[in-house]
Amino acid sequence: MEHARIDISPGLDGESVVLAVFDLGEEEIGASAHAVQAITTERFRTAEMSTDDVLEFRELTALADELADHASRQGMRTLVMRPGRLNAWRHALTHFVESRDEAEWTREEDRKALPAARGLLWPLADLCAEAMRAALNPPAPKPL
Questions:
Q1: Contact 98, 42 (CB under 8 A)
Q2: Residue 143's pLDDT is what?
Q3: How far from 127 is each of 15, 60, 83, 110, 134, CA to CA, in Å?
Q4: Which 8-state DSSP code applies to residue 2?
Q5: Average pLDDT per run of 10 along the chain, which is 144 residues long?
Q6: N or C terminus: which one in the chain shows less Cβ crowding within 10 Å?
Q7: What distance, in Å, lies between the first and last C-alpha atoms of the chain?
Q8: pLDDT of residue 95
Q9: In terms of C-beta density within 10 A (0-12 exposed, 13-18 middle, 19 or more buried), how is residue 123 classed?
Q10: What string of DSSP letters covers 62-120?
Q11: Cross-sheet strand order for the sheet of 77-81
């Protein structure tokens, strides 16, 4: 993860809009797309889901699709995420890494994605914390 920063800009109604902006390489994007898709598939394999499960499933599916779209292109990519999606990504990566570390065996695709996913955990956790602080303590709106 390169050039990570938090962007706070005024929304249409004058409220603060907090976005995390960062650059990822092909390997990191591909590993992230694989990890999020794998965790989404594992987590929501059950036939019955609560309303909260459906919302989480939709968010993770959208995130997996977004990452897969970026992974289909070559080179460094700039990604922009709201704090909620950023946290969903962090939780999925954390679960992916922890579950693969505890497993007795791992699929080849998971083994390939694991080092890049593991390498994103610390910078992603720091960026999530910074985004949450910014979202919970936005700058005061400027008087008109």
A1: no
A2: 58
A3: 21, 19, 9, 24, 10
A4: E
A5: 89 85 92 92 82 88 89 85 93 93 86 92 94 82 58
A6: C
A7: 37
A8: 94
A9: middle
A10: HHHHHHHHHHTS-S-EEEEE-HHHHHHHHHHHHHHHHHHHH-S---HHHHHHHHHHHHH
A11: 2-10, 16-24, 77-81
Its sign, for the CA torsion 20, 66, 26, 104, is positive
By residue count, the chain amounts to 144
- Amino acid (1-letter code) at residue 117: A
Beta bridge partners of 17: 9
Q: Return the DSSP state at 25.
A: -
CA dist 93 and 61 (Å) reads: 14
Residue 141: the pLDDT is 59
Find the angle CA(19)-CA(73)-CA(109) to the nearest 5 degrees.
95
Q: Which residues contact 23 (CB under 8 A, 6 or more apart)?
A: 1, 2, 3, 4, 76, 77, 78, 79
* Residue 87 confidence (pLDDT): 93
